[in-house]
Write the structure tokens for this entry.
Amino acid sequence: MDYSKLKVPNHVAIIVDGNGRWATEKGKSRSEGHKQGFLNLKKLTAYIFSKNIKYISVYLFSTENFKRSKGEVSFIMSLLTDQLNEILNFCHEEKIKAVFSGRKEHLAKKVLEAMQKIEEETKNYDDKIFNICFNYGGHAEIIDATKKIVEDVQNGKLNIDTLDEQTYNKYLYQNLPPVDLMIRTSGEQRLSNFMLWQNSYAEFYFPKTYFPDFDEQQFDKAIIEYTKRDRRFGGIDYENQNN
Ligand code: IPE
Ligand code: IPE
Ligand code: MG
């Protein structure tokens, strides 16, 4: 689809959901669903960035996902580990800056080192920003930011009276602009602890499609829907009111 005349969102966030159901309904293992999810993510991300959308955040593993079986968690961990090199190559090819959001605890040293390498090697690209949320929780992010703020107040680096939304944003895992369009695939209509601060004025879109099948045409539909939304941010468009 041609996006050139559309007002596209600056920041798109995606909750990658439905990998397990996609697989189960096809008689495949949940692991196969996660594999297909990763494959689709690469294609979809390249497509979205090609449409002049600058920021993409994706939710791949939550702080709560550790509640799943050991087998499933370790499969997702090894899938990510295997994919990190691919992610690095992809970011170089497409000139994407990749950043990771989430807690470091419970992640293997090998994974953390690979994440750091990707961030370091791609840090100078600034047209496309890919925020990968892994071992991420919205509550955890707010708590972690608050701890850093208290620390800086205690050591005199921050004057509490100057703390406002903009300053708070800088203490989050990444200093990103607000999310404009938040998509959750699979039909579930909830945030599941995803980017609570950044989604405050996002437009939500909940397609029924499972993530491995959420393709370019499906994304186009999300954008068409987004362009129809009336974003008021608490204000009123008096020119289009009758009284
Ligand atoms: C999303 O797919 C990926 C993760 C949360 C890790 P799910 O694994 O949640 O798939 P469903 O929701 O069980 O179908
Ligand atoms: C949210 O999906 C987390 C990610 C997509 C990474 P879940 O499948 O874990 O969420 P719930 O359990 O349905 O709320
Ligand atoms: Mg799910």
